[in-house]
Amino acid sequence: MIRHSWQALDKIAASVRRGSVRAIDLTTEALSLIEASSEYNTVILTLKDRALELAEEVDRKVRRGQDPGPLAGVPYIAKDNFLVYGGEARAGSKILNGFVPPYQATAINRLEAAGAICVAKANMDAFAHGASTENSDFGVVKNPYDKTRVPGGSSGGSAAAVALGLVPFALGTDTGGSIRQPSSFCGVFGLKPTYGLISRSGVIAMGSSLDCIGPIANSVADAALVVEVLAGKDPLDATTVDRSKERYVTKPLSLSGLKIGVVKEYVSDGVAADIKQAFDQTVADLEKAGADVCEVSLPSTKLALACYYIICPAEVSSNLSRYDGIRYGYHDASSKNLDDSYLKTRGRGFGKEAKRRIMIGTFVLSSGYYDAYYKKAMTVRTMLIKEFESAFKKIDFLIGPVAPTVAFKIGEKTKNPLDMYLADVLTVPANLAGIPAASVPIGFNEQGLPIGLQLMSAMHSDRNLLGLAMSIEGLS
Amino acid sequence: MPTIGIETHVQLKTKSKLFSGAGNDARGAEPNTLINHVDFGLPGALPVLNQEAIKLACKVAMALKTKPRLFSTFDRKHYFYPDLPMGYQITQYDQPIIIGGQVEFELDSKPKRVGITRAHLEADAGKSTHPAGKDYSLVDLNRAGTPLIEIVSEPDMHSSAEAKAYAYELYLLMCYASVTDGDLYHGNMRFDVNVSVSNNDILGVRSETKNLNSFRAVEKAVDYEIKRQIELIKRGQPIIQETRGWNEAKQITTSLRFKENADDYRYMPDPDLPPIVIDENYVNKVAETLPKLPDFWRSKLFKLGLSKMQIAVLLDANIDFSDCGYLDLIADFANSNLDVKSLTNWLINVDIPLNRESKTQPNIIRFSLYESVIRLIESGKLNSTSAKELVARLLSSEKLPSNIERFAKTSGLLQTNDTDEIETLVDQVIKANPKAVKDVLGGEDKAVGYLIGQVMASSHGQANPEVARTLIMHKLEP
Which CATH number fits domain B419-475: 1.10.10.410, 1.10.10.10, 3.90.1150.10, 1.20.1600.10? Predict the structure, then answer.
């Protein structure tokens, strides 16, 4: 793997603000790195013209003595489900072919205001449905550590791009593990913040009650700086919370005396030996550093996956209703009447997985089945939230593996959707509960494939979670 | 016996839409100009609740004699149609903002009470048009996202007259609570009537006739449905539970497209919208801003001696001509101990008809206008014919003249009380009408009126008819 190495974000920005490095050069560099690494297919399209324009603007500000912001000149990649000016936003699906957004995601606006420059759109599983990025209408992404393996998903393009060093950080979305699992597979840091911490406005929805936006970066400190820029109330997203006083750039937490719980249900027989080994080693390291590690049982997590695969498809079936080809995106011109138009446009525009989830979601919301599925799943979700709440009354953090295995082979799980769904088993509980969770790299298996550790903490303790992640980052 | 329940969609008069910042008043706007990313259903667009709509919903609750619920939620109602950009309508299915309430009114001098089942906030869909003979349809999304409150009545009505009276009273309530513009022509209030008939205690199968936008249509549609259903029963045919439409031209209801399966809207809580949570304090603050409702005015005007008929005309006109402020004017008159009954007659017989004729509502300071006019009449300086002319001129003037009496005088509208002048005219009239004079002398009082009329005519309406009468009687005294 050819890996470009970027300086820390604050250092890059400092150089740009000082005028010792030009934003235009950083943008050009990122664009040429992307071009040179096309075999990994991390990127669906580049936003060259607009990126260069923005970079010019940053440099102009520096020349005029104005402050371009804390991320001045930092190039980054956004997952394709973000609406970004200058190119199509398709969420990895051809049903959105031709859709150039007339407005921009709040996250992108905030990063732009901080001086960061979006250079490209990352490949992803179509509509974020997947755990391997194999379900993209734009081809599979290859894992930087082994090109025969997947990068994880659905933010596989974002994680692989950061691992390859194409950009210093990338944006992803996490509905059931889509930031954490690819971060673990690609050996980078990924954060799914508390639900509502970062605005979803302008991000193509998957499961609206689960979707979180977060950074993927080479270091916890870099991710923290991005969160600091992104976090906060947005008048365009009613589910955002006002945490304007909170700071996310933080220092490593002292491990001594920290109460850390290992989720018993997360380290069951279903977890592969190499993952288990790396995990146990980290637990030993944490104890050595003075942490008080104990076992915690969250019985409802066993039901979490089933519950997730009811609630999420229900929301997916609803959120995907708007893609009818009438106002934007792919439209099947051969249709003869309105019904035919719906059937052909949606039938041909959506991929298999989207259709599968639309059907599951439609079924569980149908009258007569709603109570048995959706309502019951919501009850389990409430139970799960309560279990997490009571656990965090006694302990500071919960830890476990991110995924049951390391990056699997391309094609290994595409035959059986259930196998693919199982890849989410350890990550969906945090989404259902809305709590912050992260994946921190803790080493490699014998084949040299990266392994991540999952950290979870109480609602709105994102800052502490970042602090712990920094400490763990420093263990190795 | 027929049983009727009515669902009413009331368009709330917020500045912007229920979930977006786009403008809400689509009257006269070019198609698809009042839309933004939310109304257009763009990817990534999220609804954000308009806080003003909550306030108006609270006022609706108060107008319906109940209180808003402190906790309510939004749901998604799914169906595919080109004028529904998101593929779902945002509505309150599970936890509406209003449960209960009532509408009370008088019909044929008897009090009637109709219970309210519930009322909920929801976003309207856009408008589809299907040009005749064309192979395309047109969609206008200006109305998409307009805030509605849907008020569902109990099946408490049993005649078309009751249905019409309920619809009208609800219209008054919503307009007086100032939650809607109440523009029926533009569909600000739309009524869906549910009608069933039965000859025992068990309710019959109902039909729902949708989208009626006048009180008369409500009445006629109910009448038609009752008749249609009774005829079906008489012929031994089943009544189908179905949605029907009103054909205004033919004055009949017709079955809308028959659906094989029951609609399944796959309702689910809308994850984009947190619940509406309000507290007593908020409700009380809104209550302080609630304008006076029809019942307040009814009892106030009744106490001032107005008839029920007059009150009804004024309540109605006060909505149509809100700039004129008729009710406030009457209240101000009463407070100044002026002649409210005279004023009422002026408003009902002259002012309101003039507005209806000209389709305008001149914003003139009516208090000074009527105060002066009534004083001039009382002092005998103005007769009723000239007064009418004077009022019409004043209402159509740009600005009220500072001295109305002088204005009347220069306009030649004041009546003359000059006895000599009138006497000359009387003498001429007596001379010219020997037959009438003979009749008067013969004891026919009617002929006196005729002679007075002649005097008035030759004075061009300016003679004081009382003076003329006295002079005529005096001259023709036997």
Answer: 1.10.10.410
